[in-house]
Amino acid sequence: MSLDGLSCAEDKTKLTVSCPEYQKALGDSCYEFVGLQHTFFSAQAWCEKRGAHLAFVPDEETQHFLQRHLDSKKDVWLGLAPFAVTSLQYSPTVEGPLSWLDGSQITYSNWVSSPQPGAACGLILGNSSFQWKATRDCNKELHFICQFESGRSTVCAGHDTALQCGSGQVLMIDDSFYGRKNIYYCRSTHSQSTSAKPTQHQCGWVDVAESLTAHCHGRQVCQISEVMDSFGEPCPQLGSYLSLDYHCKDGLTLSAIAVAAVFDDVTITVKWLLDLPRGNLSCKLSTGDGHVIYLHSPEGLESIVVYKYIYPSTFVVAVECTSSEMHIVAQKIITIQEPITQFGIIRCCAGKLCFHATNCKALYGEPFQTQMEVKAGTNVTYRIQSDEILLSGLSVVRGNVPQNITVTPEMVKQLGPGCHKLTLYASNMVTFPDVSADLQLREQMLGIMTDTISKIPPNTPADVQAIAKGVSALVQKGTELSSSAQVEASLLFANLSSSLLHMNLNKSEESKNEIFSATSTIVEGASNILDYSSNMLSLGKNPFSWKERGNISGLIGALSLTTKDGSAIPVANLSQDIEILLPRPVEEQVNTSVLDLGNYSTTSINILSANTTLVLKMVPSVDPLPFKLFLGYMNYPTETNYAAMTDMPQQGTTQEERYTWLLDPKALKGNTGKYYLVVRPIVGPGIKSINATLSITSIATSCTFWNESALDWSNFGCRVGVQTTPLVTQCLCNHLTFFGSSFFVTPNTVDPSRTTELFGTFAQNPVVVCFVGALFVAYLLVVVWARRKDIQDMAKVKVTVLADNNPMDEYRYLLSVSTGHRRGACTSSQVIITLLGAEGNGEPHHLTDPKKCLFERAAVDMFLITAPFSLGDLQAIRLWHNNSGSHPAWYIGSCMVQDLQTEEKWHFLCNSWLAIDMGDGSLDKVFPVSTDIDLKRFSNLFFMKTTKAFTDGHLWYSVVNRPPSSTFTCVQRVSCCFSLLLCTMLTSIMFYGIPKDPSEQTMELGHFKFTWQHFMIGIQSSLIMFPLNILIVSIFRKTPRKVSINKHKTKKTDTLQHNVNVTLDVVIEDITRIAHLLSKTVKSNKQCLESELRPGQQVDIHAVLSVVEDFIKQNNKTCDTAQSKSSSFQILAQPQLPGSARGHPGATLEGIQKKSYYLYRQLCHIEKKLSQLGPSGFPNPHSYSQALQQVRGMKGLLEDQLNLDDLTQKRLIPADSAGDNGVMKRLCCHGELPWWFIFVGWLLVIGTSVVAGYFTMLYGLKYGKERSVSWLVSMVVSFFHSLLVIQPLKVIGLAIFFSLVIKEVEVEDFRNVPFVENDGNKGDTDQQKIRRDSSLYEPPSPADVEKMKRNKIMNQKAIALLREILTYMGFLWMLLLVAYGRRDPNAFFLNQHIQDSFSREISDSMNLGDVFTWANTSLLNNLFGVYPGFITDGNSKLVGDARLRQLRVQKNSCQIAGSMLQFVPDCHAPYSWEVEDMGSYEPGWNHSVRDNISTSTSSPWKYQTQAQLRAYPVWGEMVLYRGGGFVSELGPDLQNASNTLEYLFRNKWLDTYTRAIFIEFTVYNANVNLFCIVTLLLETTAVGAFQFHSELHSVRLYTSTGDLYSFVVAAEVIYLLFILYYMFLQGKLMKQQRWAYFRSKWNLLELTVILLSWSAVAVFIKRTLLGNRDITYYQNHKDKFASFYETATADSTLEYLIAFLVLLATIKLWHLLRLNPKMNLVAAALQRAWNETSSIIVVIAIMLVAYSIACNLIYGWRMSSYRTVADALMTIILLQIGIFNYDEVLDSTPLLGGLLFGSCIVFMTFVVLNLLISIVLMAFTQEQIYHKASDEEEIVDLMLKKICGLFGIKYNNTNDTRGSDVNEGSGLTLNNSRNIINSSADVKQHLTTHRNP
C-alpha cells in the first residue's frame, strides 16, 4: 500500500490532489466507491487496510459530489459514530450525539430525521434523495465509501504502508504520534463485539515525529512498517496505530520541451530546489531510449543536457539523485515526432469510382472520400479545407499508412454545385508550415470555361492565348481525363482557333506575332491531349522557291507530329479530312460583283493557274432564291454550250454552304484564262422577271503541300473547302505529311558521309559499336574452335578398307553403320558383321580401324567389304560383338549396304541394343533388310527428317553437330551464321522505330495482331537478308573440297606374290582354300573333302586338283541344266532364305557364271605360282607337269563355259579389269560447282559482314544511347526467342509434314568420301589365315553370354553399392553440417548463465511473500543490470519489456466436505482450464459497479486471452497452462518496474487464488549473436507453496556473416539436392514395386527421412518468417513486451526434426553394412530370436508396469522419485542398470522396501533379463551353424578388389572358392567350333522373328 502525499509550496498552498482512475477527487481527498458489501466496522477495516477511512461529509459541496456518483437504489455507510470520550470508554448503550470517526463535530447534516438516542452508526439512504440516517444496527452489510486524505495517514499495527510523493518531490513530516487517541480507528477483533457490559480501556500515545523525520524526511518513498516495531506498545489492549501528518515538497525540477522532432536538439534542464544535502550528491539522467547520462556535480544547482532522439516515440525522461541522506526521482514525458515531408499518393473516390487527386469528381449531395498518405511523418493530422471552411479531418499515428477522409454530403451541399478548389493539409507539432496539396475538379472547370467562352467570346489574340494557356494547364496530363473531357477540350481549342480567323486585325507585324503565339499555345495544348509533340513553323517566304511549279504565294505553314522519343507520326489516308485554315495574301485582289437578276446577268473571272480552284461565294437579297449558273471558257455560255453548270441553292445547313460553288481544277479542265459566268433566275410560269440582286465574290485559290518523296508541290489528298473567304483559305486534307508512301515501307535513313561525325559521339553512345565489335571478336574465337573441329571431322570422313578382306576377293560392298543417339550408345567392343544374301553368305568381317574411334554416339562409320562373288540380293545382316572394353553396350541405329558394282542399296533399320544388360540382353542379332513400307513408316521418317534438319539443315544447330561427311564445313557454317546475324541486326535496326500509321487497319490472327506495315517490313527484311545468305550457303554446300581421294587399288593376282617365297606347301594351301570355297556349293561333296583334307594329314597336290576339277565338271553340268531351264542351281547347302533366288533360273545362271569367272582368275593365279615354283619345287618333274596340265585343263573347261555369252561375260568383268580403280568413279556433273567457287562464297561472307556491321554501327550512333539500348535488348530477346523456340518448332513441324505427306526417303551420298586402306591389309595371306582362325569371328556361346551377364550384374551391383555408400556418406556429412552448423555451443553457457542469475535466492518452497521478495531483489536486479537496457552484467540486451503473467482460479471452485463447512468458509481448487478465472476486475480484485470501468487491455486486473497476448499454452511441471492470464509489464527501467511491483504488491495482485506466475522476457547477446527466450515459472498445486521452474531457449535469428555461414548455407543447398535425388530413386522404386514397396522396412525408413527432411524445410521457413515478424514487431514497439515464444517453439520443433533425421540416418548405416558377413550374421541371429524375445519383452513390460504402479501407490506421497507413475517407471528402469537410491527407501520402510525391491531385482535382473540374453546367444550360435552366405558378399569382395586396384593394392580374395571370375571386359576364350556359314537355320529363325513380330 502506498499513500500519495499532497504537494505544497513553501506557503502551504494546497494543490488539487491526483487520484487513480478508479477513484474520484474532491479537494485534497480521493473517494473510492466500493462495490462490496460489509458491516460498518468491516467496511472501516477494509478502508483502513488501504490507508483510508469511511467518508466524511463536512459541507454541502461534498454532499452534492457524493450524490453525483451514488446509486439511488443502494445505501452506503458514512463515517458517523457516537462521540468518544477522552477516556476511550465505549458502550453500545451510551446515548449521545454522533460525530465523525476522527472525533470532529458535525458541521453540516442532511438527516432524513433527527438521530434517535442509541444510534451507533450512520448511512446515506439512496431512495430518500441521499439523506442521512442514524441506526443502531451496524451489522447490516451495505456498500460504503472510502476517503483517502492527502497529507494525513493512519496506519494500523501490522499493516505495511508506504508514503510516496510525486515526481521531483520529497517527504516532509509535519506531526506524528503512535498509540491511540480514537477508539474507532484500528479496532481489534474483540473490541468490535457488541458486549452488553460496558468496557473501559486506558491507552496512551507517544510523539514519534522525530523518529519518522529521521527515517522518511527528504525521501520520495518511505516504508512505515520498518520503524513501527521500534515504538513499543502504548495501548496493549486495544492496539496502537500510527497517525501522521506530512506534505510533499518540490526538491527537484526536470524541464524539457514536451514535443520535439527527430534529430532536433532537446534541452533537458535539471534544477535542485533544496539545499544541497550533506555527502556526495550523485544524479543520473535516463533519456528514455536506453541512454543514461551521469550528472556528478551540478553547478549552481542546475544542470543542462542537450540530447538528440533518432526515432519517433514517447519517451519518459527521468533524473534520479541520491545521497547519504535522500533519494529523489523526477520524470518528464517527451514526445518525439517525425516531421512531415510531402504527400505521397492521393486519390479520391466517389461511389464506386476512384480518380487521381487532380481529377476529383463527385455528384452534388453525395459524399466522397480522399485517400492520402505522406512519405514520412508521425502523429499526423489531416484536414480538408475550402478556403477557411473545414470540411473534414483525421488524426493518425503513422503518416506513411494510407488513410481515408470522408467529406459528408452536408459539407458537399455546403460547397454548392460547380468546381471548387479543395486543399489537403497535413500537420503535426514539429512541421512548420503545414504540408498541403490541391484537389481540383478539372473536368468541371473545363465545362465552366466552355460555357464562358460560348457566352463571351474572346476579341483579341491576347485573350485567345490567355484562355488557351488556362485550358492547356487543365489538360497538361490529357490521358488522365475522360474521353468526353478530352473531346470537350479539343472542341474548345477548335473554337479558339476559329475565333482567330474572324478577328478584324491590322496587318502589322505585332498582330502577326500575337496570332502566332496564340496558335502555338493552342497546338501545344492539343498535343497534351493526344500525348504527342507538335512542331509548328510559319514562314513568310517559300523555302522551296527553286521549284516553280507550285506557284506558291503567301505564307507557308508547317505542322508535324512526333512521339515522345522523337519518331515521326505519319498522318495519312484519314477517313475524315483535317481542316487547315491558311491566311490569304493581302495583295491578292478579290472581285465582288452585284448582279441585278431582273434579266440575265453576266460577269467575268480570270484564272491564272491550272491548279487553281475557283470558289464562288454568293449572297442573294432574298433567301431562298433559285437560279442556274453557267460558266463558259473564253465565250459566253449558253444552255447548251458551257464549261460547267449547276443549280442553286445547293444542299447545306448554312446559307454560306448553300450559295457557294466550288470548281476544282478537274472541273475547269486545267484551262487558264478568262471565264464568263451567267446567272439565270428560275421563275414560275407567266413570270418574266424577278426583283432580286445577287452578290458574287470570286476567289481563285488552291491547297497544295510539299511532297517530300517527289520533292515537288502537290494537291493530292487536299481540296478547298466551302468556308474559304477572301481572308482565309479552308483546306481539307486527309494527311499532314507526305501521303503516298509507296508499296514498300521506307526504312530509317542514315548518311554514310557523316561517319566521322557519328563516330565522334562514341564516348556518349558506345553501345552498338561495342556490341558489334564484340561479335567480331567472338566470331574469330569461334572460328578457331570450328577449324579444330573440322580437322577432327576430316579424320572421321573415310571409308575404311577392312584388314581381313581377302586380297583375292573382287566383289565390293560399301557398308555404312549408324550408331544411335541414345545415351551410352557408343561401344568399345569388337564388332563383327556377316552379309547374308540370296546367293550366298559372306565371310564374317571385323569392323575395325586403328586410325580412328569407331561407333561413337550418333556417328556414321563406313567400311569396304569384299566377297569372292556377288551375294545376290541381300536378305539380312548378322551383327555381334565380344562385349569387351570399358563400355561394351552398343545401340545400333541403322545400317546401309551398297553394291559398288551395281550401285544397289539395302537399308537395315536396327534400332536395337547389343548388350547383355540392356534391351533383350543379346549380343548376336540378325537384322532383315527393310522394305519401302518400313522406310516410309512415320516414326522412321520423322526421326530421320528431324535428325537431318538439326544436324545439317539448321544453320545454327548444325555448327555443333554437323555431319562429318558434309562438305559444308564448321568454319563455313560459323561464318554464315555470323553474316546472317549481322544482316538480321541491320534489317532490324533499319526498321526499328518506324512510326505506325494510325489509320491503318489492324488484322488479328488469334492472339496475334499485325498491320500491313508490319507485314511489309517483314517481307522487305526477308528480301534484303535471305537471298544473299541463301546464295552464300548454297555456294558452300555445292562446292566440294579440293582434296585428293585415296583410291583403293586392288592388285592383280599375277603380281600379288612377287615378294613372297613360293613353295609347294603354299600352292597346296591356295588350292585347298579354293576347294573349301567350292565345297560350300555342293552338299554331296562336303564330307568327301573333309575326309581328304583333314588337319595333320599329308595332302597330295594332284588329289586336291582332282577335287577342284570334279567341282568344275559338276558345275558345267548344272550350268547346262540351268540353260535348258529344267532345273535350278542350288548355291548353298543350307535352306534358302525367304525371297532368295530359288526357282529363278536366270538369277542362278548369273551366279554360276560369276563363280566360274572367279574360279578362272584363281586358277590363273595358281598357274603363275606353279611357273614360279618350277620343277625343282616338286619331288619329281612328272608331278610338276601333271599339276600344270591339270590346272590348264580346268582353265580350258571354264573358258568354254564363259564363252557361252559374251554379253554375260562382259557383265561379269569386275570394275578393276577395265581400269585400276577400286571405288566408284566420281561423276563429273552432279549439280556441283567448281572448287574455286569457294572463294566467291568467302568474298560474299566478308563483304556482307563488313557492310552490315558498318551500317549497324552507324544506325546505333545515330539513334542515341537510350534508343540503341532499347533496340539491342529487343534484338537479343527476339534472336534467342527465334533460335530456341520458333525455329525448333518449325523444324519439328516440317518434319511432321514431310513424314506424313511427302514420305520421301533421303539417300546418303558417299561419292566424295575417300577410301583409306587399312595397314593390316598389307600383309600376306598367311596373316589372313591366322586371323580367320581366331575365335573373334565366332559369336559368343550362350554359356559365355550368361557368364558375362552375371559378371556385368556383379560389377553393376558393386559399383551401385560403392556409389550408394559414397553418396550416403556425403548425405550424412551434409546432414551433420546442417545439424551442427545451426547450433551454437555458446547457447548452453548463455542459458546456464541466465538461469543461474535469476534462480538465486530461490528456495524449494516459497509463499507469496517470498515470491515478492525474490521479484523485488533477484528478479529486478538481474532484469535491469548495471547498464541500462541490459540484464545482469551488461552482455545481453533486453528485447522489449519483461512481462509478468499470472493464472488464477475462481472462488469457491471446489466442494468442501459437509462436516468441515463450519470450519472452512471457502475452497480453491488446483489449476485446470475449467476453473480458471477469466474475469475482469478493479484493483484489489474488486467487482466494480461503477460505469466508468476502464477498458484498457493493459490493466493487470483484466484477463487477456492468449490471442491478445500472442502466447500459447505452456507445459509446467504439474499441468498444461493456458496462454492467457492477467498481465503486467515490467519496464522499461528499474524504477518503473519497481513501482509496478510495489503497486501490485500493495493491491494484493498475488493472493490465494494464484496458481501460476510467469515471468517472460527475451534477451539478445550480440557477442554470440543469439536470442534467448526466457520463461520463469512459479506454480503451485493450491497448497500454498510455489515451485520454481525455468525454460530457456536460445535461437539465432540474425544470420552470421562469417565464412562458416556460407559453408553451412552451401551444405543446406547440397542437402536439399540429396533429398531430391533420393526422392527420384524412391519414386522409381515405388513405380517398380508398387504396393510391395511398403512392405520393406528400409523403404519406409527412406520415406520417413524424406518426409522429415521436407518437414524440417517447412518448419525452417516458418521459423524464419516468424522470427522476422517478431523482430519487426519489436522494432515498431520497443516499449512493449515482444513475444518470441512462437519462434522459439518453431526452432525447438526444427531441432527435434533434425535430431530425428540424424538418428534415422545413422540407423540406415546398418543397412549399408548389410553386406558385411559379421553384420549380416548379427542381423540374421536377431531375426531368428525374434519370436522368443518378443514374448520375453512382453513379460518385462508387464513386470515393469506392475512394480511401477506398486511403488507409486506406496511411495508416491512421500518421495519425489515415485510422485507419478511415469516417475516410478523411470526409477524402476534405472534400478535395472544400477542407478538407485536405496537409502531413501530403506529409511522410509526398511522391511517393505527390502521385500519389494529385492523381489524386483531377483525376478527382473537375475531371471527375466538373463533369460532374454540366453535366447539371443542361442540364436546366435544356431545362426553360426546354419548361416548361408549371401550372394551379395561376392559383391563386397568385388568392390574391395576394385578399390584396392584403384590404389594399386593387391587384394587376396580368400572366400573365392568358385573358380576364377570372368574378366570385366569379356576377354573370353570363345572355344566354339560352330561355323558361321552353317548357322542358316538360326538365321532363318531370326528373320522369321523380325518379319513376323
How would you sum up this structure, described in words?
It contains 41 helices and 71 strands. It is an alpha+beta fold and 1893 residues long. Strands 2, 3, 4, 5, 9, 10 and 11 form a seven-stranded mixed sheet that branches. The longest helix is centred in the last third of the chain and has 40 residues. The N terminus and C terminus are likely disordered.
Query: Oligomeric status of the shown chains?
Result: single chain
pLDDT averaged over residues: 77
Question: Radius of gyration, Cα only, in angstroms?
Answer: 59 Å
Shape: flat
How much strand? Answer: 15-25%
Please give the count of helices.
41
N-to-C CA distance: 104 Å
Tell me roughly what share of residues is in helical segments: 25-40%
Characterize the largest beta sheet: strand count, sense, and whether it forms a barrel: 7 strands, mixed
| Poorly predicted residue ranges | 1-15, 89-95, 189-200, 738-744, 1044-1060, 1082-1091, 1125-1147, 1204-1229, 1320-1331, 1489-1497, 1854-1893
DSSP strand tally:
71
**Helix/strand structural class:** alpha+beta
List the defining traits of the structure above:
single chain; 1893 residues; alpha+beta; seven-stranded antiparallel sheet; 71 strands; disordered N terminus
Blueprint of the fold:
Elements: E1 2-4, E2 24-26, E3 29-38, H1 40-49, E4 53-54, H2 60-69, E5 76-78, E6 80-82, E7 89-90, E8 98-100, E9 121-125, E10 131-135, E11 142-149, E12 152-156, E13 162-164, E14 169-179, E15 199-200, E16 205-207, H3 209-216, E17 221-223, H4 225-228, E18 241-250, E19 252-255, E20 259-261, E21 265-272, E22 282-286, E23 292-295, E24 302-308, E25 313-322, E26 327-337, E27 347-350, E28 353-356, E29 368-372, E30 378-386, E31 389-398, E32 403-407, H5 409-415, E33 421-427, E34 435-440, H6 442-455, H7 461-474, H8 483-501, H9 509-530, E35 533-539, E36 556-562, E37 578-583, E38 591-596, E39 601-607, E40 613-620, E41 627-633, E42 644-648, H10 655-658, E43 660-663, E44 673-681, E45 693-701, E46 705-707, E47 712-714, E48 718-720, E49 728-733, H11 755-759, H12 767-796, E50 799-801, E51 811-819, E52 831-837, E53 840-841, E54 845-847, E55 860-867, E56 874-881, E57 890-899, E58 905-914, E59 924-928, H13 932-935, H14 938-953, H15 970-990, E60 1002-1005, E61 1008-1011, H16 1012-1038, H17 1064-1079, H18 1086-1092, H19 1101-1123, ...
Parallel strand pairs: 1-13, 5-11, 20-26, 50-55, 50-62
Antiparallel strand pairs: 2-3, 3-11, 4-11, 5-9, 6-8, 7-15, 9-10, 12-18, 13-17, 14-16, 14-18, 19-21, 21-24, 22-23, 22-25, 25-26, 27-28, 27-29, 29-32, 30-31, 30-33, 33-34, 35-36, 37-49, 38-45, 39-44, 40-43, 40-45, 41-42, 41-44, 46-47, 48-49, 51-55, 51-57, 52-53, 52-54, 52-56, 56-59, 57-58, 60-61, ...
Helix pairs in contact: 6-8, 7-8, 7-9, 8-9, 12-15, 12-24, 14-25, 15-16, 15-24, 16-24, 17-19, 17-20, 19-20, 19-21, 20-21, 27-32, 27-34, 27-40, 29-31, 32-33, 33-34, 35-39, 36-37, 36-39, 38-39
